[in-house]
Amino acid sequence: MPDHVFLLRGNHESSFCTLLYGYQGELKAKYGEPGWNKIFKACEKLFSHLPLAAVVNQATLILHGGLFRPLPAKGRRSKKMRLENERKLGNLDDLRQSSKGGPDPDGEGTSRLASDVLWSDPGMDSGFVENEKREIGMIFGPDITEVGNQAIYSLVP
After folding, report:
1. Catalytic residue selected from 4, 12, 49, 64
2. Fewest CB atoms less than 10 Å from the CB: which of 17, 28, 99, 132?
3. Hey, where are the domains in the chain?
4. Tens place of pLDDT for every residue, the chain, 157 residues?
């Protein structure tokens, strides 16, 4: 049902999670050596092309993990400006312009936004801080969710 079912990329579509949660093992058991690895490489390529987000009925933004920072600023910036950018909330234009992070987004450079989308989590406390538990992505509070909702509604036609 291509007009009704849309697949998005999640954090389980990474090499780390496929190993940790048994997908690679399942392929090995079903297809044996050396066939499983060829299938796994094709899956990795497929996963890296899945969209990070979808807007449903021009009103609802769907993301696997959560909210994200804007794309890293280009060019030389002061340390203060870089730190301010680390705590800002990204918008749909950032999302549209970002890369999908490749097979394993690592939270660095151009894959930062993809990593945030895949690994960020909501939290109970206000604010927008690095996700120290996961060591990738962000934790965002209810205040940031509200800011995000307002920003999204202003950008969706």
Report:
1. 12
2. 132
3. 64-155
4. 888 888 999 999 888 888 899 999 999 999 998 899 999 999 999 999 999 998 888 778 888 888 998 887 776 666 666 566 667 888 888 888 888 888 888 888 888 999 999 999 999 999 999 999 989 999 999 998 888 777 655 555 5
Distance CA 154, CA 11 (A): 28
Question: pTM, whole model, 2 decimals?
Answer: 0.82
Question: Which stretch of DSSP H or E encloses residue 63?
Answer: strand 60-63
Give the 3-state secondary structure of residue 128.
strand
Is-catalytic flag, 12? Answer: yes
**Distance in angstroms (rounded) separating the CA atoms of residues 13 and 20:** 11
